[in-house]
TrEMBL record:
Residues 103-245 form the Multidrug resistance protein MdtA-like barrel-sandwich hybrid domain. Belongs to the membrane fusion protein (MFP) (TC 8.A.1) family. It comes from the Bacteria. The chain crosses the membrane at residues 30-47. This is Multidrug efflux system membrane fusion protein. Residues 249-333 form the Multidrug resistance protein MdtA-like beta-barrel domain. InterPro entries: MdtA-like_b-barrel, MdtA-like_BSH, MdtA-like_C, MdtA-like_HH, RND_pump_MFP. Residues 336-397 form the Multidrug resistance protein MdtA-like C-terminal permuted SH3 domain. Signal peptide: none annotated.
Amino acid sequence: MDERVDLARSKTAPLTVPLGRPKPPRRRGIVKWLLALVVGIACLFAWEQLEKPTPEVAPSPGAGRGGGRGAGLPPQTIRDAEAAKGDIPLVINALGTVTSLATVTVRTQIAGTLQQIGFTEGQMVKAGDFLAQIDQRPYQATLEQYQGQLAKDTALLAQAQADLARYQKLGRQDSIATQQIDDQKFLVTQDQAAISTDQAQIDAAKLNIAYCHIVAPVGGRVGLRQVDAGNYVQVTDTNGIVIITEIQPMSVIFSTPEDNLSQIAARLKSGASLPVTVFDRANVKQLATGSVSTTDNQIDTTTGTFKIRAMFANDDGALFPNQFVNVSLLVDTLRDAVVVPNAAVQLGPQGNFAYVVKDDDTVTVRKIVIGPADADHTAITSGLAVGEKVVIDGADRLREGAKVQVRNGSGHAGTGGAAPAPDGQHAAPGQDPGQAGQHKHRRPQGQDQGAPAPGP
């Protein structure tokens, strides 16, 4: 009975499966193991290829000592130039401001009604030219009043002097007291002082009348009119009547680091004239040429610079007051220096270097010390000799001992000759033919990161 009940219960009870991740089939495990084995073999093969040393290639005939690593590679097309002897100008570039030698705000020195304007805006005037007229009638009346007072005091003085002469005569006769004679002397002195006061008041009145006639204190260009005729002007007016700016000659003030002070001061002390050229804000158009006039008497401690004033005739009016300009100061000229084109100078971890082309059409890395430079050439103080050829184009992939093929075209690169486009490529109009075959992702000049560091 119990066995039948258990059998029936077992048929109706749900089938229970133990919880947990089922075991993967055996076939899936084999596939994973094979995949891992393939990946490991591929990684091992790649590592062996990276660590495998590059086999040496036998140098080609004529390679000579310059074979090296690059002997088995095709020659790199380059352009070269010859190190020559030349002059390099020592130029200081700075930012400057055009500054007038005299800027005067013409103001009235008396109060009164502005009757007349005697100038045109923008007019060139000379010192003493008539500018404006103020009503002088009140000051003319004051002058006449002081002149009348002077005449009165003059008559009183004459009377007092006559009385004094009579008193002195009576005093010699003992007919008058001495005190009366002394009082008369003091009266004469007072009348003389009154006349002096009257004369001073007359002079002041005449000066006020002269102030009514306003003239130009300096020569220059008249600006915009600050007040119109008919207005009542006073001494306290801040704008004045007009502003005059001297523009011929004109000066430019610019600053340069204090490190240049000794060289500039020495040149000025020797009596040399230091030429200065100014350009517009874009540093493209030349505005004027002049020379250094003087330097400031102190160094600005906040910026470590000192100011220099340069003078210009400015006959054409190209320089305008407060104009921003670019300044080029020629301090000196380095004579008979070894110069190369700027493109020949490279920059590496150990400093500046250049690729020198040898007679066997290979290049060698030469450490150089550069000096002053201009827009086209750089002076080499050590490391190169006159006549040696340096690479000026195509130095991106060069290494020590690399084989090169020089293609300078009909003219030598060092003398301005154009080189044809390498590998048969054609240069675009206005493009240097030697640059037509260069890689479009060429690194900046002097930044050849792959170049070996030149030896000491």
